[in-house]
């Protein structure tokens, strides 16, 4: 990518010019919402679903996004085109905007909207071949009645704290339980287990973000003929699973081979995980919104 253009409150600016107010409540209090989206070969994967989640998060925190969904979709497409990006990562942020030092959001003048589209530093290939290590952590997932994990808000301290715990345990990722001890999700990805060829993921009401990749994998698993269940489970079920894997926009589908120092099966990515990853990689270039009319005239758009 030659120079990077960032959409910031209605115009494209350079990285250096893309600044926000120190009074922005997104910065001061984590008051805002966001999305992380992938573009694969010009196709913005599941953009409609990401926009739906963004608007639902905003609705929940009474943040009015100053664009219609159609206009916002066009802004995201335009940001990808402006950067001539074929494959990469898109970050969309809508913050409450500049206010005063008090908490009151009604003092904020207008939301600040940014869209960043850039090349993604991909997870190292060997992590997909070897699988991840995971540690369950002492910090519990936010209770849905306190700060719902379904709101993709800028307040990610719960997730950051568990990531710190995972780092301290020497694991790649954290496993978060809810206040009743049921498994919810990782710091930034959903969890699945496979037992006797049945694929199981926790229901989101236990305290998980309703991941777009999670939902895509549920659909693919059913299409591939697997039995698929959304049922609560505990750490024990994870330890004795045949396979464990995580899903997320950045991670896609990635095997977990060790949880709390227990090796999962033979300690290698399992066949169901590998199968779903390959099926997933087939749909990512078609299921979404195409930014370019065809691959050969991309540069002219
Ligand atoms: N859980 C959390 C807490 C996340 O931040 C993410 C990443 N957005 C996910 C799960 C996975 O969601 P998605 O598949 O939509 O990226």
TrEMBL record:
PROSITE patterns: AA_TRANSFER_CLASS_4 (PS00770). GO terms for cellular component: cytosol. It is an enzyme of class 2 (transferase). It catalyses: L-valine + 2-oxoglutarate = 3-methyl-2-oxobutanoate + L-glutamate; L-isoleucine + 2-oxoglutarate = (S)-3-methyl-2-oxopentanoate + L-glutamate; L-leucine + 2-oxoglutarate = 4-methyl-2-oxopentanoate + L-glutamate. Pathway: Amino-acid biosynthesis; L-valine biosynthesis; L-valine from pyruvate: step 4/4; Amino-acid biosynthesis; L-isoleucine biosynthesis; L-isoleucine from 2-oxobutanoate: step 4/4; Amino-acid biosynthesis; L-leucine biosynthesis; L-leucine from 3-methyl-2-oxobutanoate: step 4/4. SUPFAM superfamilies: D-aminoacid aminotransferase-like PLP-dependent enzymes (SSF56752). It holds the Pfam family Aminotran_4. One of its GO terms (molecular function) is L-leucine-2-oxoglutarate transaminase activity. Its EC number is 2.6.1.42. GO terms for biological process: isoleucine biosynthetic process; L-leucine biosynthetic process; L-valine biosynthetic process. Its cofactor is pyridoxal 5'-phosphate. Keywords: Amino-acid biosynthesis, Aminotransferase, Branched-chain amino acid biosynthesis, Pyridoxal phosphate, Transferase. It comes from the Bacteria. PANTHER family: AMINO-ACID AMINOTRANSFERASE (PTHR42743), AMINODEOXYCHORISMATE LYASE (PTHR42743:SF11). Belongs to the class-IV pyridoxal-phosphate-dependent aminotransferase family. Acts on leucine, isoleucine and valine. This is Branched-chain-amino-acid aminotransferase. The gene is ilvE.
């Amino acid at each position: 990518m030659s120079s990077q253009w960032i959409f910031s409150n209605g115009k494209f600016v350079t990285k250096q010019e893309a600044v926000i107010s120190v009074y922005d409540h997104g910065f001061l209090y984590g008051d805002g919402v966001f999305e992380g989206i992938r573009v694969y070969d010009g196709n913005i994967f599941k953009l409609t679903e990401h926009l739906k989640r963004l608007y639902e998060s905003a609705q929940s925190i009474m943040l009015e996004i100053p664009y219609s969904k159609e206009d916002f979709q066009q802004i995201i497409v335009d940001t990808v085109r402006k950067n001539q990006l074929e494959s990469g990562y898109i970050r969309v942020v809508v913050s409450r905007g500049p206010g005063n030092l008090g908490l009151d959001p009604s003092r904020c003048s207008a939301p600040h909207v940014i869209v960043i589209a850039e090349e993604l530093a991909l997870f190292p290939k060997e992590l997909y071949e070897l699988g991840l290590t995971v540690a369950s952590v002492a910090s519990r997932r936010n209770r849905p009645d306190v700060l719902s994990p379904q709101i993709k808000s800028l307040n990610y301290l719960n997730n950051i704290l568990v990531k710190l715990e995972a780092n301290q345990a020497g694991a790649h990722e954290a496993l978060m339980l809810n206040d009743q001890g049921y498994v919810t999700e990782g710091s930034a990805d959903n969890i699945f287990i496979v037992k006797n060829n049945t694929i199981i993921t926790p229901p989101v009401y236990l305290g998980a973000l309703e991941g777009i990749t999670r939902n895509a994998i549920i659909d693919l698993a059913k299409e591939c003929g697997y039995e698929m269940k959304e049922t609560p489970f505990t750490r024990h079920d994870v330890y004795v699973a045949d396979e464990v894997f995580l899903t997320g926009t950045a991670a896609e589908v990635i095997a977990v081979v060790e949880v709390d120092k227990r090796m999962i099966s033979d300690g290698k990515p399992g066949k169901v995980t590998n199968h779903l990853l390959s099926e997933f990689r087939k749909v990512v270039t078609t299921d979404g919104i195409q930014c370019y009319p065809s691959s050969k005239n991309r540069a002219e758009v």
